[in-house]
Amino acid sequence: MARPPTYYISARGVIATVYQRMKFEAENGVERVTDARWRTSKAVGVSERTVTRILKQKRESDSTGAVLRSPHKMKKPRKCLRRDIDNFDMAVVRRTINNFHKEYKQFPTLKSLKKILNEKINYKGCIETLRRLLFDLGYEWINTDDNRRMLSEKHDIQMLRYKYLKQLRKYREEGRNIVYTDESYIHTTHVQNKSWANENGSIAQKKISKGLRIIIVHAGNKNGFVPNACLIYKASSTTGDYHDNMNHENYKKWFKTQLLPNIPKKSVIVMDNASYHNTFAEKVPNSNSKKADMQEWLTYKNIEFREDMKKIELYDIILKHKDNSKNYAIDAIAKENDIDILRLPPYHPDLNPIEKIWGVLKNYVANRNIDQNYTSILNLINERLAMINVTIWDKTCQHVEETENKYWKDYDDEQEFTIYVGDSESDNDTSSFYDSDENSISSANKEH
């Protein structure tokens, strides 16, 4: 016997309402028999306006082939655990991968790596999410001579790191003043995962809402924070990436009025690759630009082209010269003040000392954020920033320099880090990486 269909509470209510209306008509006669809209509204217990709206939606769905859905009932987007990994945790992941064999004296599986990350940063992602996270951190598939497949750090990421370290060493040899800058955030409900007791013995617990988001912008080096460079403000939104609460104009204003006046000439400012750091000083034509604009840009850059070239040919030339013609607005402002900009390689917050300073600040706030409101957390932020002195900064910078030296030594040894994922019959087959017990991570030498 077939299983009877399941009707949810809303459908059951409609059935009961229609039955009552049919029973009423059977006993008292049918009213307004030709008014289908009115009779429908009475039968299902809604207004005629609602019936009209639903009929309109039905006609539209029939014409487009779309499914008739309940209004305002959207599928809740799945939370992406990868996006919950902040810069500080990203540095922990990379450091754990690089030091796993030395620290734990074994070649780990993804399962064991996941376990360690859970202990270090409370990582809650699954094996598949961890695998994708490694891709996000700049690892890719490669094939070995013995037909094994592994994840290896992408060549362009290795090259960008090498260029950064080489240029940074050059600046240090010149005796230049290196200044590190970054932005971070703290929610007003930022507390430790555990609860604590107030003075009266009651248990203080984290509020359900995230509360307000406080954005912090600052700069510093081994000599401490740059004087008068601190910018703290309340974000306009608590959703999305905190970078969405900063734009190029706001950053440029802080850069010109609070950072540049407070650092010496010939300094070098180290920053990451946030979009508002990389706004072009001049607009580069894209595929939708007019042909005349493309020709004007090529002429301005002294790049040869023929007048009879089609738009697609002009754009192809632009793409080939685009990277060599990058001119960022922030760089131009810095150059006017006799200051250079050095950008960190992607996915390398561990090379920026201020990232560790943010960790010190956030831990302090989390341990003392009892009131969980804007005023109290602002006081805690300013209180801890005032306590972060030259000694803390100097030790942090020394630690980062040690990390730099380790990366540099890897280039000397011609060693690259790889994650073994087992054998595979096809270059496009990634199924072997799903079996975590067979996956291992190892540091291997590769001849170039």
TrEMBL record:
- The Tc1-like transposase DDE domain is annotated at 178-371
Region entry Disordered: which residue ranges?
422-448
Q: Which domain of life is it from?
A: Eukaryota
Q: Name one Pfam family in it.
A: DDE_3
State any single GO MF term: nucleic acid binding
Q: Where is the composition biased (Polar residues)?
A: 429-448
* Matching PANTHER family: DUF4371 DOMAIN-CONTAINING PROTEIN, PROTEIN CBG22215
List the protein's name.
Tc1-like transposase DDE domain-containing protein
Task: Supply the source organism for this entry.
Answer: Eumeta variegata
